[in-house]
């Protein structure tokens, strides 16, 4: 029996339950559908498209090594799958389950038209399955993590199949180049090419490279100048490696992996949040803050642009925003600082920041991006209060960001540590580096004043 393997954010052969199940039933038609209709305004951003191109090329090559190949089609998933099943005589579709609200709808629709079998495997535990004693899903991370740990370790990862049977005749496929996922004029992806190797082999390589640093992770992860974190996020987002594979590999490494595994669990937690609040990317978790008057108009637009371009006059913020633009990734501590700066110091709606990250991040993920933006903004179900305002200059000093700033803000590269966090206050701001677009105290006071009006 020929079956269809419907691939989305699960672009791997190892620990791929849907592939294993399909392969056991006979010939398999692996298909990736470029579907901008189903997610509507949540279709992939430019940085994610860059990643997708390379990840699909890598997957096709791995499939060919196994006697198979990747079929590419474009359109609404449900319609494409139904047409493909008709063309090929396939009667069953296997996939890994996804939790973005649009994918849940699509799975429902495909399930009505075809025999769809959904498998788990992109999370440590299936989202929605970690519940309280009263049978409710968790809203807060810490008890979620406690309960998740009771379910660990995750199942042992499944090996990649040895050979995948091909159908007698392959259906037609689009060509990847025709999809034009890569930037041309201008080609802004030079920094991406230097930093990343999308695909399953690249993910493996990142993991192996990170293993000797697991023990130091708890402290090093907070230091932007260090290579303290794994940089596995885009690989995890596109499903090039499973979290179970990571879990079992780091558990066998030297040093206590708990701090690292707690972060992998944040990814699971975020999925549990969007399962409960599907519109978390646009709606405040705390409705009490719905009336907050965000700044709008010409001055706010100019501030938003300065933030996007890394020209706010706050070196740590500017370094982060430029790292994001150049490589499609930003260090986690700096993500928090830049997000907090936009929302609190500039009093600009978190949704505009979330949208910019969505377009620019190679790891842009609906659940993780919305949950972290809302967490930082103080609007989330699991957030600090809005009144907790991060001080970017002291954060920069506390987490020794001098080297990081030098790497991303060349105008400041000549400054010593004592001056680099706040060159303006040190009296050595170069002419080609902007003055602060707002003072720290002034920004803080304005944010608190706006909050008072909704309390
Ligand atoms: C405003 C803001 C927006 C963010 N948007 C995204 C996003 O769109 N996609 C995304 O994957 N992460 C997002 N994060 C979380 C985090 O910054 C990144 O996952 C992390 O920086 C990725 O780097 P790493 O792989 O080296 O992480 P490591 O520190 O090595 O962590 C390992 C893995 O754990 C997961 N993880 C770590 N921290 C978090 C977290 N706070 N929330 C969810 N998962 C986490 C990631 O999958 C990561 O690859 C965001 C954080 C903030 C503050």
Automatic annotation (TrEMBL):
InterPro entries: Crypto/Photolyase_FAD-like_sf (IPR036134), Crypto/Photolyase_N_sf (IPR036155), Cryptochr/Photolyase_FAD-bd (IPR005101), Cryptochrome/DNA_photolyase_1 (IPR002081), DNA_photolyase_1_CS_C (IPR018394), DNA_photolyase_N (IPR006050), Rossmann-like_a/b/a_fold (IPR014729)
Entry EC no(s): 4.1.99.3
Pfam family, any one: DNA_photolyase
GO molecular function terms listed in the Swiss-Prot or TrEMBL record: deoxyribodipyrimidine photo-lyase activity
Family statement: Belongs to the DNA photolyase family.
Record bears the keyword Flavoprotein: yes
Keyword Amino-acid biosynthesis: no
Cofactor: (6R)-5,10-methylene-5,6,7,8-tetrahydrofolate; FAD
Keywords, sorted A to Z: Chromophore, FAD, Flavoprotein, Lyase
Highest rank taxon of the organism: Bacteria
Domain Photolyase/cryptochrome alpha/beta: 1-124
Protein's UniProt name: Deoxyribodipyrimidine photo-lyase
Gene3D superfamilies in UniProt: 1.25.40.80, DNA Cyclobutane Dipyrimidine Photolyase, subunit A, domain 3, HUPs
């Amino acid at each position: 029996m020929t079956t269809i393997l419907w691939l989305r954010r699960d672009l791997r052969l190892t620990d791929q339950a849907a592939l294993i199940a399909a392969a056991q039933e006979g010939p398999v038609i692996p298909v990736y559908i470029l579907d901008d209709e189903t997610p509507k305004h949540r279709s992939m951003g430019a940085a994610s498209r860059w990643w997708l191109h390379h990840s699909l090329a890598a997957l096709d090559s791995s499939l060919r090594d196994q006697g198979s190949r990747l079929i590419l089609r474009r359109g609404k998933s449900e319609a494409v799958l139904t047409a493909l099943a008709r063309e090929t005589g396939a009667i069953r579709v296997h996939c890994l389950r996804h939790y973005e609200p649009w994918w849940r709808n699509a799975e429902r629709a495909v399930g009505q038209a075809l025999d769809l079998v959904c498998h788990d495997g992109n999370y440590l535990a299936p989202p929605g399955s970690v519940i309280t004693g009263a049978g409710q899903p968790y809203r807060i991370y810490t008890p979620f993590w406690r309960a998740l740990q009771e379910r660990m370790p995750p199942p042992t990862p499944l090996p990649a199949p040895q050979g995948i049977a091909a159908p007698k005749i392959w259906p037609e496929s689009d060509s990847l180049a025709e999809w034009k996922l890569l930037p041309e004029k201008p080609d802004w992806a030079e920094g991406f090419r230097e930093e990343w190797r999308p695909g399953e082999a690249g993910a493996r390589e990142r993991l192996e490279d990170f293993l000797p640093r697991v023990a130091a992770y708890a402290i090093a992860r907070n230091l932007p100048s260090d290579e303290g974190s794994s940089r596995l996020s885009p690989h995890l987002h596109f499903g090039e490696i499973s979290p179970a594979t990571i879990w079992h590999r780091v558990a066998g490494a030297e040093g206590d992996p708990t701090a690292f595994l707690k972060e992998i669990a944040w990814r699971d937690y975020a999925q549990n949040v969007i399962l409960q609040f599907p519109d978390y990317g646009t709606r405040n978790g705390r409705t009490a803050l719905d009336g907050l008057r965000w700044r709008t108009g010409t001055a706010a637009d100019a501030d938003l642009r300065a933030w996007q371009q890394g020209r706010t006059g706050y070196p740590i913020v500017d370094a982060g925003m430029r790292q994001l633009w150049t490589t499609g990734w930003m260090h986690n501590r700096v993500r928090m600082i830049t997000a907090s700066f936009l929302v609190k110091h500039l009093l600009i709606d978190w949704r505009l920041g979330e949208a910019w990250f969505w377009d620019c991040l190679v790891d842009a993920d609906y659940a993780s991006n919305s949950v972290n933006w809302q967490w930082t903004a103080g609007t989330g179900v699991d957030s600090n209060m809005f009144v907790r305002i991060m001080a970017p200059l002291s954060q920069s000093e506390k987490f020794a960001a001098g080297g990081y700033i030098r790497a991303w803000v060349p105008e400041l590269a000549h400054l010593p540590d004592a001056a680099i966090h706040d060159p303006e206050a040190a009296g050595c701001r170069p002419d080609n580096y902007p003055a602060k677009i707002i003072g720290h105290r002034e920004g803080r006071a304005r944010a608190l004043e706006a909050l008072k009006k909704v309390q």
